[in-house]
Amino acid sequence: MRLSRAPLIRLTREAPVPLPAPSPRLSLGALPLLAACAGGPFPRAVTDPAPAIDGEDVRLTFIHTSDIHSRLLEYDFDPSFTDNQLGLADDVGPYGGIAKMTYIARRERAKAGRVLHLDSGDCFQGAIIFNEYAGEAEMRLLTEMGVDAAVVGNHEFDATAQNLADQYGAWGGFDLLAANYDFETSSEPWATQLEEMVLPSVIYDLDGLRVGVIGLANLSSLNSIYDESNSMGITVIEAGDAIEAEAAKLKSQGADFIVVLSHMGLDDDQFNARYLDADVDLYLGGHHHVATKPPIVVTNVHTGKRIPVVHSSAFAKFVGRLDVVIRDGELLSHDYQLFPIDNTVPDDPQSLDILEEYAQDLATHFNTSQVIGYAEQKLTRYGSTGGDSMLGNFAAEAIRSWPGVETEIALTNTLGIRADIPAGDITVDDLYNSMPFDNTITTMYLSGREVQELLDYNAERSTERGCQSQAQVAGMQFDMVCDPDDPHAENIVINGRPLDPDGTYELATNNYIAHGGSGFEVLERNTTQQDTGISIRDVVMAAIIQYHDLPQADRGIAVEDGRINPVY
């Protein structure tokens, strides 16, 4: 089992030096030796004796990134109120881009003494560069940025587990962590590779300070692993068991300070920090795309430790820096900064050189700047009331109306739309940023009772998320009752008529939730499914080209119309 494996011990890192272009990794059998000797992209041999730190106040710096979601190229969007509060100002775009993130990371590393750059996962999926190159660019550029370790995020599996093994094997120059996945139980070829590549934990020797890092990968939305009916044959270890066992092991190996590098989400991180009987000092997390500024400090009920929980936002909008002071393994104080990534930040030249290879290839073979429509105002992915949204309604209507599909109703998951479309010219790149997933249209027949169950489940899932609808629909209108004791849908109308429990309705949806993604079991068990192979993004692109100017309020196109009415 994975928990029996001893953590690797890495040497300390220095400020970065220019790297040659990455080359494919050597054979898997050489990996443990290479890792122990090299320790990642910025190695040095330890020649001087480590200073004595007993009884001394020791400063340690963490550079933290998370949920980059392939936003390697800078992009335009309207910062939210929360973004503004965190320091990302309006009208200083384009924003993001990994060359700018790398500039910040290198600058802050050079200012620090003992430093680790930790990433909380989901570097894959979210822009056209992933769709075209399947994660190669992300792995190369995270290595160039100087990431020491990254936890496996759920979207790292989006182009298959074999692809993760291939891309990391060829380009990864950092430690990849997940203590709660056991790949040994699978007979698939990639499982053997990932068992060698993905470590449960690592100890970094930072000039005499030994820092243990435990990887905690995502479970809740990782259908392909966690849901037994879609299992890849991987054993999932309970988070508490993994953390407690790894923390004890790291302490026995001489770790002075222990970090959980998590992709479980903010709620889970706070719960684990508070209730697990584990000698952990810090949680650096991701998955929920939020920033905790200042960090949330949780008191552990067993140890009495006050444990900071730090999240650093998403989509390449910020780089976090956490400075801690430690004496004899005890965290005495901490200070946290978020650096916004906007057009005032210079580009790191080495990263920019790598990035331009991909940008030029995309420009040549895939005209990302092609204008396909015009947005009179920002087209939003979330509804202003928590119900239906402008983009949700537009996408759902496009899906069910496509020639050859033409179903009575449509339903797609809200999180399948990842970003608003800014006001102004709508480009191919804007569409890919908004709808990055390569989902296809699946049709099926549902009984009226199954429609009721489907919308009840949406109400349940939405209630857990602040009564923000987790589905977008066409051909339907209903009240979404967000009662924590009895979430359900009522007053359901299908194309102007009340829902008939004994009726039959043809549904168009996306293949992800048709296969049970996001917990949509009522769709997964349906035996009438037909995957059309038609790309949902292509269908939405065709609809944008057809209507061009959006929204069109007089025609009810790309507007909120109250088809999903939240009831609190």
List keywords for this structure.
2 domains; alpha/beta; 568 residues; disordered N terminus; 5'-nucleotidase,  domain 2; 7-stranded mixed sheet; Purple Acid Phosphatase, chain A, domain 2
How would you sum up this structure, described in words?
The protein folds into 2 domains: 58-357, Purple Acid Phosphatase, chain A, domain 2 (4-Layer Sandwich), CATH 3.60.21.10; 367-567, 5'-Nucleotidase, C-terminal domain (5'-nucleotidase,  domain 2, Alpha-Beta Complex). It is built from 17 helices and 28 strands. It has a 7-stranded mixed sheet with strand order 1-8-9-11-12-14-13. A 7-stranded mixed sheet has the order 7-5-4-3-2-15-16. A 5-stranded mixed sheet has the order 21-18-25-20-26, with helices on both faces. 51% of the residues are buried. It is globular and about 75 Å long. The protein is α/β, with parallel strands linked by helices and 568 residues long. It starts with 7 loop residues before the first strand and ends with a strand. It is 29% helix and 26% strand.
Radius of gyration: 24 Å
Q: Can you tell me the number of structural domains?
A: 2
What is the CATH third-level topology name of the largest domain?
A: Purple Acid Phosphatase, chain A, domain 2
Strand order of the largest sheet: 1-8-9-11-12-14-13
Write the layout of secondary structure elements.
Layout: E1 8-10, H1 31-38, E2 57-65, H2 81-85, H3 98-111, E3 114-119, H4 128-133, H5 136-145, E4 149-151, H6 161-171, E5 175-177, E6 181-182, H7 189-197, E7 198-199, E8 201-206, E9 209-216, H8 223-226, E10 235-236, H9 239-252, E11 257-262, H10 266-275, E12 282-285, E13 296-299, E14 306-311, E15 318-327, E16 330-340, H11 349-365, E17 371-375, H12 390-401, E18 409-413, E19 424-427, H13 428-434, E20 440-447, H14 448-463, E21 471-474, E22 476-481, E23 488-494, E24 497-498, E25 504-510, H15 511-514, H16 521-524, E26 530-535, H17 536-547, E27 549-550, E28 564-567
Parallel strand pairs: 1-8, 2-3, 3-4, 4-5, 5-7, 9-11, 11-12, 12-14, 17-27, 18-25, 22-28
Antiparallel strand pairs: 2-15, 6-10, 8-9, 13-14, 15-16, 17-19, 18-21, 20-25, 20-26, 22-23, 23-24
Helix pairs in contact: 3-5, 3-11, 5-6, 5-11, 6-7, 12-17
